[in-house]
Amino acid sequence: MKVSSAGRLLAAALVPTAVLLARRRRRLKLPQAGSLAIAASVPVMVLVAAPRGRVRAVTGWAAFMWAYKIAFEIPYDRPEALRRRLHIDEPIAIDSRIAGGLPPSAALQRRLREPPRLTALDRAATLFYSTWEAAPHAVLAWILLRRPERFPAAALRMGSTFAATIPSYALYPQAPPWWASEREERMGRAVRRVTLEVKKELSGEPRPGVDHNSQANPWAAMPSDHFATSAMMAAVLAEIDPRAGLGGAAYALLLGGVLVYTGEHYVIDLIAGLTLAGAVYSAARALPLPGGPR
């Protein structure tokens, strides 16, 4: 659809207002549905305003990820109401059945950690966990530079995977292993949030810490957005180069192990994330986008 110059200017002018409203939604006491709609409008307006080509691709993706971050946080705007629906024991029971004993997070930390001392494995796992913040974006940047005709299909798959996790975070809030262990004394308090323990050490903060809540949304755990998007990353890489796809699959598997070991996710969260990624990929294949799989 062709948009006039005036339409592009209007869209660009509205972006700062929408961003400000979304960021101040708690202070303004905006309804959650309204906040979500405002955040979702930002990438649409950016795509309308930006010129065609790589500038639109980069700014559109950046705006989408900003909107995703806001949508990720919105269910936790009213934590007291969300807490009343929090699922704590169900994932522990499921993981216990999967492992035939202790949930894998508890079993791994009891075997491999030496609290309160941080080990080389703790630090290495935290470093690898941190790479996820850049990995999906780096993959899309690589595709945009090397195979720009494949970018629309790849971005649609990655973006849809991120977005598809959001409804569950509002409808099914679930405590991750570290929260269930540290706050609710489940699993014999054997599971700690390793990633934030290591970050506390690096920043010189006292540890072991008592409060490991990052305040973004600690109950956005089912499904694992980390694992879902990493699985999709492997799939979009495989469409372009099978060797890159194998590398992406290896990355996803290693990240899955790290997520369980560090207490960020249960195994069932990973299974749900993989299932979601598969469903999104299958649905996206039906769309006639340029650069889709042949």
SSE topology sketch:
Layout: H1 5-23, H2 25-28, H3 32-49, H4 54-73, H5 79-83, H6 89-99, H7 104-112, H8 120-130, H9 135-146, H10 151-164, H11 166-171, H12 177-184, H13 194-203, H14 225-240, H15 242-261, H16 267-285
Helix pairs in contact: 1-3, 3-4, 4-10, 8-13, 8-15, 9-10, 9-14, 10-14, 10-16, 14-15, 14-16
Proportion of helical residues: 55-70%
**Tally of separate helices:** 16
Report the strand count: 0
**Average pLDDT level:** 93
Percent in strands: under 5%
How many domains is the backbone divided into?
Answer: 2
- Helix and strand composition category: mainly alpha
Give the radius of gyration: 20 Å
Sum up the overall morphology in one term. Answer: globular
Order of helices and strands: HHHHHHHHHHHHHHHH
What does this structure look like?
- The protein is an all-alpha fold and 294 residues long.
- Helix content is 69%, strand content 0%.
- It has helices at 5-23, 25-28, 32-49, 54-73, 79-83, 89-99, 104-112, 120-130, 135-146, 151-164, 166-171, 177-184, 194-203, 225-240, 242-261, 267-285.
- Helix 4 runs parallel beside helix 10.
- It is globular, with a radius of gyration of 20 Å.
- It starts with a helix and ends in a 9-residue tail after the last helix.
List keywords for this structure.
294 residues; 2 domains; 16 helices; single chain; mainly alpha
